[in-house]
Amino acid sequence: MELYTPILVLGAIAAAFAVGSVGIALVIGPRRDNRAKAMAYECGIEPAPQDAGSGRFPIKFYLTAMLFIIFDIEIVFLYPWAVAFDQLGTFALIEMGLFMATVFVAYAYVWRRGGLDWD
């Protein structure tokens, strides 16, 4: 248990700082409620009038989120490979090269199709 004591203390300090910051902001922060603050914020899109229905998001938002997830997962796979590279040898280098080539081909495809253009 002595091994985990510094980690538990750090976690307690972080939790106390987070709760304390929110609490202090609630107590001493200004309260200026208005109609604009009560409305939902949708990534910079002007909200539709209430009688026009719920509206739809452009597909660009979902495409951007999916691309982020794909490249984020690639980085998640690269970290452990980089840490254990010395023990893995040449086979792992070739496999990672193939993995990177596959992701690069997907990136080039999205780029050529205009998926990264925000017009």
3D architecture notes:
There is one protein chain. With 119 residues, the chain is an all-alpha fold. Helix content is 67%, strand content 0%. It has helices at residues 5-28, 35-38, 59-83, 85-88, 90-112. The radius of gyration is 24 Å and the shape is flat. The N and C termini lie far apart (56 Å). The model has no long low-confidence stretch (mean pLDDT 83).
What's the layout of helices and strands?
Blueprint: H1 5-28, H2 35-38, H3 59-83, H4 85-88, H5 90-112
Helix pairs in contact: 3-5
Distance between the termini: 56 Å
Please give the radius of gyration in angstroms: 24 Å
Mean pLDDT figure: 83
Structure class: mainly alpha
Total beta strand runs: 0
Proportion of helical residues:
55-70%
Element pattern in H and E: HHHHH
The count of helical stretches stands at: 5
The main pleated sheet reads as: none
List the uncertain runs: none
Tell me the β content. Answer: under 5%
Envelope shape: flat
Keywords:
67% helix, 119 residues, mainly alpha, single chain
Gist?
By secondary structure, the protein is mostly helical. It has helices at 5-28, 35-38, 59-83, 85-88, 90-112.
